[in-house]
Write a structure and sequence with these properties.
The structure holds two protein chains of two kinds.
Chain A: E1 2-9, E2 12-15, E3 20-22, E4 25-28, H1 30-37, E5 43-51, E6 57-60, E7 62-66, E8 69-73, E9 92-98, E10 100-105, E11 116-117, E12 132-140, H2 146-166, E13 175-180, H3 184-190, E14 196-204, E15 210-214, E16 217-218, E17 225-227, H4 229-233, E18 237-241, H5 251-255, H6 258-266, E19 272-281, H7 285-301, E20 306-310, H8 316-329, E21 334-341, E22 362-367, E23 371-374, E24 379-382, E25 404-407, E26 423-427
Parallel strand pairs in A: 1-9, 2-4, 6-24, 10-12, 14-19, 14-20, 20-21, 21-22
Antiparallel strand pairs in A: 1-13, 3-4, 5-12, 6-11, 7-10, 8-9, 15-16, 15-18, 17-19, 23-25
Helix pairs in contact in A: 1-2, 7-8
Chain B: E1 3-10, E2 27-30, H1 36-43, E3 47-55, H2 57-62, H3 64-76, E4 82-89, H4 92-109, E5 113-117, H5 122-127, E6 132-135, H6 143-158, H7 166-169, E7 177-181, H8 186-199, E8 228-233, E9 237-239, E10 255-258, E11 270-272, H9 280-284, H10 292-300, E12 306-313, H11 321-337, E13 342-346
Helix pairs in contact in B: 1-6, 3-4
Classes of the chains: A alpha/beta, B alpha/beta.
Chain lengths: 428, 348
């Protein structure tokens, strides 16, 4: 598959009469966006805010962050199976409003959603303090069951992202990147002397609002399968995850999967990037065994010399990552794992819930339990009282002045396990 | 201002005596004593060892709470800025004493402490999180090499300077994870690590997986009525008088003892050597730790094939994993040669 990604650089967002992109500024027609976002009987109201880098704004609780994109040519539309039809995507041309982001918020579960600080010490820990954010506060209709509530807000965010992305459809991008992965045998032939690398892309699928969607299918129900890296760039993988803000893979991060980006960077130079194997993290032992067996089988079948394995979540899914690791290593294929750590507030506890001596190459994206003190922000978009029950917080985390003392676990993307950020942990 | 240091050492390094003086109670002397002299030389004008606190390893280990109180009390009087303990090399009870004192110093005097130990010293696993322990060789022959890194780290800590990585400073990794921002994002570091691994080049993992020692359970005994059973214990059951002088903690040996003429353990023929539990009930009737009486009855009644004529014992109090493994290998050799089918292993 060959995909051209046209990046339209956005360096400001403003409300305007028409939703359009002009000279790097995204203008947003507030009413229209609210209409598109709220186009669902189960939504009572939609409020829209803008949050820009450096402003003293706190957004809490954050459900998802999505990048505005639009398919310009090639089969299908963005977010297939959810707001577009199920056509296979990843080919042709896609435009991206680079530097803009849709942030959905609202009291889904209250629990574990996380926050984004646009300024202050917390801003260092999230990539979304650097994006121009269009923030959507989506209020559900009365009596909506939790699972439906999640789905409603998820779809609303995707609709909004596509609506905004559409503003870039006819705009000449500032740069165009070309990504290409050929069918296996051709790909192998293209760089016969380079080591073949497969990316094992683990998706959280623990149920109870910790889910991921692949072409609209609940990934709890998939069998590990091959995915072209470019499919992910068109939104084939979407987050339905409401757990630990620090390491949930926001849809934005799926769309901009840094492992895929960095593997393509070296593709044809020191490695032959064969493609991705997506797999899940179900909670039963049988499912874990089945998925890891099949992942290892598929990775070997693809002829991989090496594999990068990224996890999503922590604790229970550590076991899936460990199984994937040793089963792939047992086939003589070299692995590198990317994971965060839960080493306790003093950093002295065991970081992972499981272990294998074959896991000898690990990239750490930081200890999620480290405490941080966040100053109060002038404006809070959302529900500040959510802090006290957010994972990583505890009673008393919210100070009277609006300051927050809690684990970095509560900051969106702080320990992202696709390696999107710079945070790591060292042994002392 | 010169940094004030108090040095903690044991009876051996103070020149008081060896094992026979290990019950020496805490005492304090002005200035540097024994290895403290080498430390003082290395400190030069930067720091002064104002006092040395000395305590026997046996006394300390058998009275940890009281001894710690006494030692800390003595140190307090000298208003130290930092405390140095040891180095203990591979001496287990000394390592545990050094670790306990250093931890108490950090907690109660709220000043830094530095020790030095061989990585297998049981004091390391017990105290490395609380205290900086410089890695040393396994005997006092390594004293000279231990002094310099201990002095360097001590000065840094006393001055409140930032400490480097374990590799840079020479201390045994404490198993503490600390966040920092890297120069490149995680995904890029992962790709680079994989490329190195594929090329067979050296790379450094950012997180070391803990390794768990897995023991596959043996098969069940097919016919217990025909089996030869042996008794082995880490609960410290020894003949009266502890003839082999098995240490009350950090045991350096195990013993093999004859059950000839013994149908029952009692205060006349046996005692416990273990310093890690209240010995009163064990000393009243050691069958509570090593069930000789019951097994002798079962043997007479034909419920087991036979009871092996020897029992094996050591003290599992602060015993290093390496030593425990070593004892087991030797014991198993003898048991196998004697045709033993199964072992009852008691612990405390």
């Amino acid at each position: 598959m060959r995909l051209e990604v046209g990046n339209i650089l956005i360096n400001d967002i403003q409300f305007g009469d028409r939703t359009e992109v002009k000279a790097g500024v995204l203008f947003v027609n507030r009413e229209e966006l609210a209409q598109v976002t709220g186009d669902d009987d189960r939504i009572a109201s939609v409020e829209i805010y803008l949050a820009k880098p450096g402003e003293e704004i706190r957004i809490i609780p954050v459900k998802d962050v999505i990048e505005p994109r639009i398919k310009v040519s090639g089969k299908g539309g963005i977010f297939p199976g959810l707001i577009s039809k199920v056509d296979t995507v990843g080919e042709g041309r896609t435009h991206v409003l680079k530097g803009a982001a849709v942030v959905t918020t609202g009291r889904i579960v209250g629990f574990q959603e996380g926050l984004i600080d646009m300024a202050g010490p917390g801003a260092e820990y999230t990539p979304f303090s650097k994006t121009m954010n269009v923030v959507l506060k989506v209020e559900p209709a009365e009596g909506l069951h939790q699972h439906e509530h999640e789905r409603v807000v998820r779809l609303a965010g995707l609709r909004a992202a596509e609506y905004l992305g559409r503003a870039g459809q006819s705009v000449e991008p500032d740069s165009v990147e070309v990504y290409e992965t050929k069918p296996l045998l051709e790909q192998v032939k293209e760089y016969p002397d380079l080591p073949k690398v497969v990316y094992v892309y683990m998706l959280i699928t623990q149920g109870l609002l910790h889910d991921t969607y692949f072409y609209g299918v609940d990934a709890k129900q998939i069998i590990p399968t091959f995915v072209y890296p470019t499919e992910v760039m068109d939104g084939a993988v979407v987050s339905g995850n409401c757990v630990s803000a620090c390491d949930k893979n926001l849809t934005y991060i799926h769309q901009n999967n840094p492992v895929i980006q960095d593997l393509y960077e070296r593709h044809g130079k020191d490695l032959n990037f064969i493609g991705c194997v997506i797999t899940n993290e179900n909670v039963t032992l049988a499912d874990k065994e089945r998925s890891s067996n099949m992942t290892a089988k598929l990775v070997e079948f693809l002829g991989a010399d090496g594999a990068i394995i990224s996890e999503e979540g922590f604790g229970n899914p550590d076991t899936d990552m460990i199984m994937n690791c040793y089963k792939i290593e047992e086939k003589g294929i070299k692995t590198v794992l990317i994971t965060d750590e839960y080493a306790g507030r003093d950093g002295a506890s065991q970081s992972l819930a499981d272990s294998t001596e074959k896991g000898d190459a690990v990239v750490s994206t930081g200890n999620a339990n480290e405490i941080i003190k966040l100053p109060p922000m002038k404006t809070v978009i959302g529900y500040p009282e959510a802090t006290d029950i957010i994972a990583g917080g505890s009673d008393g985390s919210l100070g009277e002045d609006g300051s927050i003392t809690a684990e970095i676990q509560i900051i969106i993307g702080s320990t992202n396990e696709l390696g999107y950020g710079l945070l790591t942990a060292k042994g002392r | 201002m010169t940094i004030r240091i108090v040095h903690y050492i044991n009876q051996f390094f103070a020149g008081i005596g060896g094992e026979e003086k290990a019950d020496h109670r805490p005492e304090v002397r002005e200035g540097a004593v024994g290895p403290g002299i080498a430390f003082q030389q290395a400190f030069g004008e930067e720091a002064e060892i104002v006092a040395t606190v000395i305590c026997g390893d046996t006394y300390f280990n058998e009275n940890i709470a009281a001894a710690t109180d006494e030692v800390i009390g003595m140190m307090e009087n000298y208003r130290p800025d930092l405390v140095i303990c040891g180095p203990a090399f591979n001496a287990g009870r000394y390592g545990i004493a050094c670790g306990a004192v250093a931890e108490a110093v950090v907690d109660r005097l709220v000043i830094p402490a530095v020790s030095g130990m061989y990585p297998e010293n049981p004091g390391v696993d017990m105290y490395k999180k609380a205290v900086y322990i410089i890695e040393t060789s396994n005997s006092a022959a390594g004293m000279r090499k231990a002094v310099a890194p201990m002095v360097r780290l001590a000065l840094k800590l006393a001055r409140g300077e930032k400490t480097g990585s374990p590799e840079e400073e020479g201390y045994i990794p404490r198993g503490i994870r600390q966040n920092q921002f890297a120069a490149e994002r995680g995904s890029k570091r992962a790709v680079e690590m994989l490329l190195k691994k594929l090329k067979g080049e050296e790379y450094t993992t950012e997180y070391q997986m803990p390794v768990f020692d897995r023991v596959t359970p043996g098969a069940a005994v097919k016919d217990i009525k025909k089996a030869k059973i042996a008794l082995v214990s880490s609960g410290g059951p020894v003949p009266k008088g502890n003839p082999d002088r098995i240490e009350s903690s950090s045991a350096s040996k195990f013993g093999r003892y004859s059950l000839q003429g013994i149908d029952d353990l009692n205060p006349e023929n046996s005692e416990t050597a273990h310093g890690g539990y209240d010995p009163v009930y064990a000393n009243e009737d050691l069958d509570r730790v090593l069930p000789v009486d019951v097994l002798k009855e079962m043997e007479k009644a034909g419920e087991i094939g036979s009871l092996h004529e020897y029992w094996y014992a050591t003290v599992g109090n602060g015993t290093s994993v390496a030593n425990a493994r070593r004892f087991a290998v030797e014991i198993v050799k003898e048991l196998t040669a004697a045709g033993v089918d199964a072992v009852i292993l008691t612990s405390t």
